[in-house]
Amino acid sequence: MTTPFLHINGIRKTYGDVVATDHVELSIAEGEFMTFLGPSGSGKSTTLYILAGFQDPTAGDIKLRGQSILRTPSHKRNIGMVFQRYTLFPHLSVGENVAFPLRVRRMGQAEVAAKVKRALSLVRLDGFEDRMPAKMSGGQQQRVALARALVYDPPVLLMDEPLSALDKKLREEIQFEIRRIHQETGVTILYVTHDQEEALRLSDRIAIFNRGKIEQVGTGPELYANPATHFVADFIGDSAFLSGRLATLQGGRAAIRFEGGQQIVDVPLHGAGQEGQAADLMLRPERMELTPEAGPAGASLPVTVQDITFLGNCTSVAARTDWGDALTVRLNFGHPLAGRVARGDRLNVRWSPEAAHAFVRS
Amino acid sequence: MLLDFDKLGAWKWALSAICAVMALFLLLPILFIVALSFGSSRWLIFPPPGWTLKWYEELFADPRWIGAALTSAKIGVIVMVFSVALGLLASLALVRGTFRGRAVLRAFFLTPMVLPVVIVAVALYAAFLRLGLNGTLPGFVIAHLIVALPFAIITISGALETFDPSIEDAAILCGASPWEARLRVTLPGIRHGLFSAAIFSFLISWDEVVLAIFMASPSLQTLPVKVWTTLRQDLTPVIAAASTLLVALTVILMIVAALIRKGKSE
Ligand SMILES: Nc1ncnc2c1ncn2[C@@H]1O[C@H](COP(=O)(O)OP(=O)(O)OP(=O)(O)O)[C@@H](O)[C@H]1O
Ligand SMILES: [Mg+2]
């Protein structure tokens, strides 16, 4: 196997009794856009700060092109970073902010000017050289920060929730810019977010963090189609989880029995389990369908309608199974049931086979 | 706001009146002194029978007054430089450090503010007697530094606390060494705090009289000490002129400090 471009090798970091990251293992290819996605406190920032050199890991190593970088102090790592908070130097103009990394590298005046111009043009802020940071919007400031982090051509760019302080519309606009900049520069990016939509929109691959560990790494479609754990299934996509018990097991597929005796058969099972153990059936919302008549036995369930919400392009129907688990099904605009369904209706929910997964409850 | 001034009705006038009386009460003695310094009477009569500049002429013609003023200025400037430098280092440790006992150390640094100055003065006098520092320039500087430093630490720590450490981190990742980052990014970022600390440190030394009386020798005394000793010998309007100049510089520097604070908030 060839040495990976960037190798995060078994990083563990503890603060006293708190385990911030636990054996984080990840290989990143050159030019890849890798996103760390996970809930608050799952260790995403800690991993990034160890890469930046602001924290020392308790155990593990980080290798760039096969060389450990842990011994190199932060300011010699030549890594770029955009922070969650606005970090432009308040006393310097935009141009001088972007020039700062070049000035500390003692680069000649003409070269500095040319590089600053090119970097500002990359983030579409041509001609903003003389503006002071305090006179710019949050989105503009983060774009200047991006230009400053890229102006010295770092091999790796770290971004820790750079857009979380911006409103939704601006966020989407800058996400689009970041994608373009990634394509134009080919820089390797490690991006932290807890917004799944942002992760899916930007990344080549996503690492799902949970309690200091990586639960799964893969492309967005891979994670969506084949979640390895209950946590990943829950974190990506708005799925329904119905709680039951494993009835039969065979070759990685299982049947699940619910309270009241209904049984769903032949769904792929994730995680090791035994008969009788508690397990959840996950159903992806866009693969579920509501029908008035009963579906095929073993791949459909009767439900009672609880609430109906019109959302423009679709109608969202909240329903409950006979044993009380909630699920939501969407009816596209113009669906024959959309106008007729009412609270208290008894309907059947059915799904296409690849939309159902079983997870052993841990 | 809980108490909205505009909605107080009749109370508004009462409050304004109280404020005006308070201001007058605080300002009157100073205005009195200023008026006397321009008054033509030798005996500090109020209201002055006529106006003159001769007390100022007398003041500027007397090398002892000029000497005292220069001594005050010299001590003030040295105290200012040391106070800001030491205050900055102490603040960096107190605000950015991660060692244990920071809160205790901070409280310790601020004790001179709550200790009666006379006690500090007596203690210093006794200590300096052994060290031979009484009546010397270093003695003055150390004494004034003790009372000026807490103000510098409070002002600079305050500025440092509002300066996001992530900005410093950003500078480091940009390639600046930690000290280069502090010098090129953090210091300019807290310059308002440094200027305020400098002005207040100077003023504390410039106005200080208790410690200065203990430290003074016949050949080395500050302006407030000179005012004090002259006052005991001879009630001349030259004292009023000297006091007016003392107050004038204080007021000018306070205005500068206020302008700096205003510039920062904009
Ligand atoms: N300096 C520290 N001292 C003690 N505990 C810390 C420190 N920094 C982080 N932690 C703990 O380590 C864990 C991981 O924190 P981290 O900041 O990496 O999470 P995160 O995934 O970035 O979360 P968020 O989305 O909230 O930024 C948390 O439980 C946090 O409380
Ligand atoms: Mg974080």
Strand order of the largest sheet of chain A: 6-7-8-3-9-10
Task: Give the H and E element order of chain A.
Answer: EEEHEEEHHHEHEHEEHHEEEEEEEEEE
Average predicted confidence as pLDDT of chain B:
90
Structural class of chain A: alpha+beta
Number of separate strands of chain A:
20
Number of helices of chain B: 12
Specify the overall morphology of chain A. Answer: elongated
User: Would you identify the CATH architecture of the largest domain in chain A?
Assistant: 3-Layer(aba) Sandwich
Q: Which stretches of chain B of 5+ consecutive residues score pLDDT under 50?
A: none
- What is the third-level CATH name, the topology of the largest domain in chain A? Rossmann fold
Strand content of chain A: 35-45%
> What distance lies between the first and last C-alpha atoms of chain A, to the nearest angstrom?
35 Å
Structural class call of chain B reads mainly alpha
Subcellular location (chain B): Cell inner membrane; Cell membrane
Main location (chain B): membrane
Family (chain B): Belongs to the binding-protein-dependent transport system permease family.
Keywords (chain B): Cell inner membrane, Cell membrane, Membrane, Transmembrane, Transmembrane helix, Transport
Please give the structural blueprint.
The complex is a heterodimer of chains A (362) and B (266).
Chain A: E1 6-15, E2 18-28, E3 33-37, H1 44-52, E4 59-64, E5 67-68, E6 80-82, H2 94-104, H3 109-122, H4 138-150, E7 156-160, H5 168-185, E8 188-193, H6 196-202, E9 205-210, E10 213-218, H7 220-225, H8 230-235, E11 240-250, E12 253-257, E13 263-270, E14 278-283, E15 288-291, E16 300-310, E17 314-321, E18 326-332, E19 346-351, E20 356-360
Parallel strand pairs in A: 3-8, 3-9, 6-7, 7-8, 13-20
Antiparallel strand pairs in A: 1-2, 1-4, 4-5, 9-10, 11-12, 11-14, 12-13, 14-20, 15-19, 16-17, 16-19, 17-18
Helix pairs in contact in A: 2-3, 2-4, 3-4
Chain B: H1 10-37, H2 54-61, H3 63-96, H4 102-114, H5 117-131, H6 137-161, H7 165-173, H8 178-189, H9 191-207, H10 210-215, H11 223-233, H12 237-265
Helix pairs in contact in B: 1-12, 2-12, 3-6, 3-9, 3-11, 4-6, 6-9, 7-8, 9-12, 11-12
The structure holds adenosine-5'-triphosphate and magnesium ion.
Adenosine-5'-triphosphate binds next to strand 2 and helix 1 of chain A.
